[in-house]
Amino acid sequence: MSKNGKKSYAVFGLGEFGRSVALELMSAGAEVMVLDSDEDRISDMADDVTLAMQIDATEERSYVELGLSNMDGVVIAMTGCLDACIMAILAAKEAGVPFVIAKAQNHTQALIFEKIGADRIVSPEHDGGVRVARNIMAGNFIDFIELSKTLRMVEITIRPEWIGKSLKELSLRQKQKINVVALRKDGELTTDINPDAPLCEGDTMLITVDKMYLGKLQQ
């Protein structure tokens, strides 16, 4: 769906859980397509997401033109129809979506969803939609902490293109809008950072960043 480098996600089902996932992903800078069989729910979300579509998830032809192969992740948040959930999971995996999360209402559903290829099973009672969305956006981040409504603290791996360069050379605050708080080398975390020292493969850094720039860190 995206040609501008942003992460793209699809959310099936616009109950409270699905809505909260979609809105949090949008607020974090992703592109989000939402899908539901209820026309009113689609109308209510149309102005808040990248694309809102009414579909019958039990119909195989509904998936033909969704472009799921372009998605970085899919969230299956439908309720009340096991067949629709199964078809959506299978369609996403067949399209090559790398990360599919499915909401299960009970243990039996969880077992079924896992068997047919869902990468992660969540329970609304234990995993709120906002938390799930933040974990999706965290992606390959090592750790992810909410400091405020807008500020996040994240531990990230050193990008391949950063290896051998110093923090001074990289100018991460100016170019990436991130502030480096600490550096971890060989498992040891230090705040005494030499800005002229080259970064090494295997290093990680603890940073603070406004949530609007989280998506950019994933690109």
Task: Give the structure's gist in a few sentences.
The chain has 219 residues and is α/β, with parallel strands linked by helices. It is 29% helix and 25% strand. Helix 1 runs parallel beside helix 5.
Task: Give a quick set of tags describing it.
single chain, 219 residues, alpha/beta, Alpha-Beta Plaits, 2 domains, six-stranded parallel sheet, 8 helices, 11 strands, elongated
Radius of gyration: 19 Å
Number of domains: 2
Outline the low-pLDDT stretches.
Answer: none
Q: Could you say what the CATH topology of the largest domain is called? A: Rossmann fold
Largest sheet: 6 strands, parallel
DSSP helix fraction: 25-40%
Q: Name the helix and strand elements from N-terminus to C-terminus, one letter apiece.
A: EHEHEEHEHEHEEHHEEEH
CATH class of the largest domain: Alpha Beta
Distance between the termini: 15 Å
Supply the CATH architecture of the largest domain: 3-Layer(aba) Sandwich
* Residue share in β-strands: 25-35%
CATH superfamily of the largest domain, called what?
Answer: NAD(P)-binding Rossmann-like Domain
Please state the average pLDDT score.
85
Strand segment count: 11
